[in-house]
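[step 3/7] fold_predict: job queued, chain A
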Amino acid sequence: MTAEFPHSAVITAQTLRHLLMCERRVWLDARADPSLHDAAAPEALRLYALGSQHEDRVHAATAGPIEPVDIASWEEGVAATRDLMRRGVPGILGACLEVRVPLDLSDTVYTLRGRADQLLRVWHHGEAVYSPVEIKQRSQPEEADWLQLDLYVWLLSLLQGTVPPAELWLGADPLGRPRRRLAHDYDEDRLMAALLRVAHLTASAPEPPVRIEPHCATCHWFTACQGVAQHDKRLDLLYGVSRTTRASLEAAGIARLEDLVARSPDELQTIKGIGPKTAPRIRANAQAWLENRPVWLDALPEVCRQPGWMFDLETWEIGGRTVPWCMGWCDGDGQTHITLVAPVQLPEPLVLPNGQQVTLAPDSDAAWEVFAAAVSEDSRPIFHWSGYDAAILRGSAPEYVRAQLAPRMHDLNATLKRVVSLPLKSTSIKPVSTHLGFAWPGYQDWFAAYLDYQHWLETGSLDALARACLYQRADVQSMALVWRWLVAHAPSERA
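[step 4/7] structure written:
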């Protein structure tokens, strides 16, 4: 990835947050071709939406007279914020702060930007100043929170001529009020060190190396970075290998996939952090990448060779509980059944524009009962992907449903990881099924499905609901494809 694009002289609060997590992202955002961006990741969208919902809740519970900054463009937002500050309004919601300053000995003038959750007009050392408030859903502060507030305080000090106080609000009680209000200890040295590091990265530093971590999946450079890792055959491609374990491997002279495959499992076990179960698995994963083929580790358990039910659910938060809003299941032939939580009065079963029939349930308990009744005619295993579905069963289903279904639940993802390694970074259902030939219809974004479901509840749009249910159907059908592939290709005895 070459630095053919001029570096950006804009530094935002998000830039500083990214700096603490991944310097490579900061470099790429400033220097690389933006057309290489991935679309927004579902998890990133989910986290953004949850954060926005939390902020709205806290604003509603705490704000007195406060003026929102409706942003048609960033420039208009900056102008509106400064106008509100000049007028001396009690509070400003979503304030757009911007100052242009030099940071180093170069001729570059940097534009520093940040959008504060709230600015509150307070008395400080005998004068009225605007104090920034940052609102987070988390219960514990992070280093990035303080750095972000450092930036807001500095920008406001340049705009107001005095250094204001600042607060970090964490969590919320049942009424929406913050559980913790922490005073911010402004550290100009900390801020300047971060700003100068960004200036160096974006102006003259060489491209930082690829380091793929779990959080990378939410980054818009993920595909580009994974491509670099694949080209260089880096250890970052391996799934389930922590940063600490990767460092131990590199310290032992294992820097590439071929180095790993050259060591026996017994040799690998001598390396710190690698045990008898991990050694053959990561070696097989490296071999799968190098040879672009499945590498079998074990025989398929007999329980997985018999036909079963493929099951998946989607969840939402109600009253502090995580419960299903949609369930889908099918048998090996791929015929899918969908039950939907619908706290509305509608004809049932509901036929969607794409022909899919949907059973409606008034709440999640009733949805669990529909599913339990549908699979009660036999004792076949109920396959699901990862432990999430089983955990939701334990936490949300009526007791008699749990007793009926729990002994039949079988994690197909755990089985796949135990018996075979594929040339993949992740064993989530979407990359696994796509690798094995499943063509996903519509989107692959569970959060988009949730938004479409909410849109149906609000507007009655059957087209939106059809998209959400198509996503659910694809989830279970893709699982059926993986199961059929395992049955067809897995050895009957341990490899």
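[step 5/7] annotate
Confidence is low (pLDDT under 50) at residues 1-6.
The longest strand covers residues 109-124.
exit 0
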